[in-house]
């Protein structure tokens, strides 16, 4: 999986990323996550890894003291900056992936929404995210269920519960919830597919 090609694609998509279809799916995902985030013990920092244009995390800005949004493409972060200025948000920090890897600090909640499928070394990323998660924090993954018809050089063909469980264990995390919640036509590279939410915590 060529991360440079992936970055180039997202650079090109940034200005037109917020399509009506993506906004519709984002609204469904937001509804699925809202109650879970509200039940967190602490809400000091929300980290959104692979934030894109901020569709998922910016609506939660008023519920957390600080937001940290991270993306591979600076062009995506430019879209987030424009949104923050329009919305008057002053509690949002933006970082590229290399900048994030140099950061200290831990989050109450980490969002990883439709991002794992673009990552070459999933276990390594989960280990990095675990290092940025408070002991009582949670990681919320949204991604596609494994799909036998997907064969693409730049994306994983989705994830099964068993595969994700194994990846979590290798990264020192435990899978505390796995729930498919949304199925639609043309959802995943033109195919009918299902999204799941997975909740991860430190294993000890």
UniProtKB/TrEMBL annotation:
UniProt keyword terms in alphabetical order: Methyltransferase, Transferase
One of the record's GO molecular function terms: methyltransferase activity
Example GO biological process: methylation
Signal sequence coordinates: none
PANTHER family: PUTATIVE (AFU_ORTHOLOGUE AFUA_2G14390)-RELATED, TRANS-ACONITATE 2-METHYLTRANSFERASE-RELATED
Protein name: Class I SAM-dependent methyltransferase
Native source species: Streptococcus danieliae
